[in-house]
Amino acid sequence: MSTEPTFLSNTPMIPTGGRLADALKFFTEQMGFSVLWQSGNIAGIRRDAVVFNLVENDNREWARNASFSIAVSYLDALYEEYRSLHAKVGPLEMKPWGRREFHMILPSGVCLQFYTQD
Question: Averaging pLDDT over each range in 47-51, 56-60, 113-117, which range is the top one?
Answer without folding.
Answer: 47-51
